[in-house]
């Protein structure tokens, strides 16, 4: 499990640096709203999230999967094969994301991610710690329900981190139309960060684009085009970059409006 952590952190840092360099060299869109403070705040959040998970949860999802397997506790009665387990996890994450947009209590947490008024690879790090802890609990539930093997958890966590960094990045990607048949591309995920509510409530997938197509939440392109589309939430038009305000955002009374009623 030590090796798993080292692998995950190495892939994460390596891709963060690589995508940041590519964003500088071959940017997809000019980002007038992007300021260094955004990136610092987003980076600070991922550090706080990791600490919160360590403090609040007794073990990592990987260790939990080992424990469930050792005690033979999977409710299904057997372990799901690795590839199928990864697909199940991805489908669960899709629906979790969709539910976080619809249920007002969860939207309070998830809007921290959407309150970024620009989108680049650092946006992938911008989540409220409570949302991250809840996501981990969802994974724990999946592990015990479906007997998800530890290898599937390890691969899925690395894949999810890598794909989130990729599909939030502001990099010009060739052959987007072909690529997005198999994976979620930056152009596809950018639609999800539009201020237009119908676009915010679309393209929930992180890894594969199929769930959006199957469950009717796929929107191919932003109405105003990638360069002119507005990113973020109309509630936070200037974007929110204060770390303290982001941490307190879910608990603010005035901000309790759900995405639907906005
Ligand atoms: Zn979202």
Helices, by number, come to: 13
Cα-to-Cα separation, first versus last residue: 44 Å
Low-pLDDT segments: none
Written as H for each helix and E for each strand, in order along the chain, the element string is HHHHHHHHHHHHH
Number of strands: 0
Structural class: mainly alpha
Main sheet record: none
User: What percent of residues adopt helix (DSSP H or I)?
Assistant: 55-70%
Gross geometry: globular
Bound chemical compounds: zinc ion
Quick overview of this protein structure:
The chain has helices spanning 2-25, 36-56, 61-70, 82-102, 104-114, 129-146, 150-167, 176-179, 186-191, 197-200, 210-214, 225-228, 243-248. By secondary structure, the protein is mainly α.
Task: Describe what you observe in this structure.
This protein has 262 residues and is mainly alpha-helical. The protein has 13 helices and no strands. It has helices spanning 2-25, 36-56, 61-70, 82-102, 104-114, 129-146, 150-167, 176-179, 186-191, 197-200, 210-214, 225-228, 243-248. It is globular. The mean pLDDT is 91. It binds zinc ion. Residues 97, 101, 110, 113-114, 192 line the site of zinc ion (ZN). The site of zinc ion has 6 residues, from α4 and α5.
Q: Can you give keywords for this protein?
A:
262 residues; mainly alpha; 13 helices; 0% strand; binds zinc ion
Secondary-structure blueprint:
Layout: H1 2-25, H2 36-56, H3 61-70, H4 82-102, H5 104-114, H6 129-146, H7 150-167, H8 176-179, H9 186-191, H10 197-200, H11 210-214, H12 225-228, H13 243-248
Helix pairs in contact: 1-7, 2-6, 3-6, 3-7, 4-5, 4-6, 4-7
Residues 97, 101, 110, 113-114, 192 line the site of zinc ion.
């Amino acid at each position: 499990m030590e090796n798993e952590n080292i692998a995950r952190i190495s892939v994460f840092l390596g891709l963060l640096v690589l995508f940041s360099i590519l964003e500088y060299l071959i940017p997809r869109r000019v980002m007038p709203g992007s300021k260094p403070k955004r990136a610092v705040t987003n980076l600070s959040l991922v550090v706080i999230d990791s600490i919160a998970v360590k403090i609040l949860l007794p073990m990592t999802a990987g260790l939990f999967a080992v424990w469930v397997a050792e005690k033979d506790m999977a409710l299904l009665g057997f372990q799901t094969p690795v590839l199928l387990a990864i697909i199940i996890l991805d489908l669960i994450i899709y629906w979790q994301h969709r539910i976080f947009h619809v249920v007002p209590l969860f939207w309070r947490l998830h809007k921290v991610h959407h309150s970024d008024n620009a989108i680049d690879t650092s946006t992938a790090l911008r989540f409220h710690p409570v949302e991250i802890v809840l996501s981990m609990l969802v994974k724990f539930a999946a592990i015990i329900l479906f007997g998800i093997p530890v290898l599937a958890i390890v691969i899925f966590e690395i894949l999810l981190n890598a794909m989130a960094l990729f599909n939030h990045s502001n990099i010009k990607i060739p052959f987007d139309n072909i690529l997005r048949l198999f994976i979620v591309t930056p152009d596809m995920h950018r639609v999800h960060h539009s201020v237009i509510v119908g676009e915010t409530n679309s393209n929930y997938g992180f890894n594969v684009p199929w769930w959006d197509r199957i469950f009717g939440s796929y929107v191919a392109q932003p109405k105003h085009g990638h360069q002119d589309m507005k990113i973020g939430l109309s509630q936070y038009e200037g974007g929110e970059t204060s770390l303290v305000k982001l941490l307190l955002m879910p608990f603010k009374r005035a901000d309790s409006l759900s995405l639907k009623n906005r």
